[in-house]
Amino acid sequence: MGENMFMVAKKDGSPGLGVSYEVKAAVLKEANEFAKNKGMEMQVVRMETKPAIPGRLGSTELTFKCVPRGTENIPLEREADLIIENRNR
Fold it and tell me: What CA–CA distances, in Å, run from 4 to 27, 69, 83?
């Protein structure tokens, strides 16, 4: 993707509606471990989460950089996750 720029993406294999926080956590953990193995820290560039809807699995895509330890982290600007509620319960 570019110099010290990487991407991790996962689909949520469980059916349902909404965002899988387990998948988000797994993506962040994988990126952190990747950077740690390079002797660096992971810095989020962009994170996109698509909620599951009928006929489509949810997914999380993370673009990140590996930076030297102690590098100032630039705050991530992103939109809030879309939460879908089933009101017909």
Answer: 17, 14, 32
